[in-house]
Amino acid sequence: MNGFRFEKTPQALFLDRDGTLIFDKDYLHDPEKVELVAGTREAVRRALDAGCLLFLLTNQSGVGRGFFTMRDYEACHRRLVELLGIRAEDFAACGVAPEAPDAPSRYRKPSPAFVLEQLAAFPRLDPARCWMVGDRKSDWQTGLNAGIRSAAVATGKPIDDDARAFLRGNAVPLFENFAAFADAAFGGKNQTPAG
Ligand SMILES: [Mg+2]
């Protein structure tokens, strides 16, 4: 248990894809290989039922590196939506950064641009009740850069000492997986955040 308690129910989640909603398969471009992390479908449903806005924010440098195309990305996204059992429009907006790491990019995490644009588009959102959820420091830094909260999940990049120090130093809670985050945020049994 990480002992983290949400003071208020989140109004919006900015969700990383690889290593958070689905398993991180390097440069995923085959829809057949999209694989949900256990409990994610139910967790997404719980968030939507709670009236929480869902956004997707994903770095896809494989496009900029020439490994696959946006068409491949979009095919994988359709498969993700299908596996989640939601409608495409259940994501209020999706931010995709297809650039290679060394190329100029508006949305590539840890850029806060996408989050800030959505906060402007949905003025009812209280930044203190908006969360960036992801498996990497670039995700957590995105939330911090945008002035919202960040949460970590342990289903992607291994949480090493450096990551742990970052989480501790920035009061970013760590959860076993997205389902555990949703249990803590929206209520539910099987509440098993990571330590
Ligand atoms: Mg990730």
TrEMBL record:
The keyword Electron transport does not apply. GO terms for molecular function: metal ion binding; phosphatase activity. InterPro entries: HAD-like_sf, HAD-SF_hydro_IIIA, HAD_sf, Heptose_bisP_phosphatase, Histidinol-phos. Keywords: Carbohydrate metabolism, Cytoplasm, Hydrolase, Metal-binding. One of its GO terms (cellular component) is cytoplasm. It is found in: Cytoplasm. Transmembrane segments: none annotated. GO terms for biological process: carbohydrate metabolic process. Pfam families: Hydrolase_like (PF13242). It comes from the Bacteria. Belongs to the GmhB family. This is D,D-heptose 1,7-bisphosphate phosphatase. It comes from Candidatus Spyradosoma merdigallinarum.
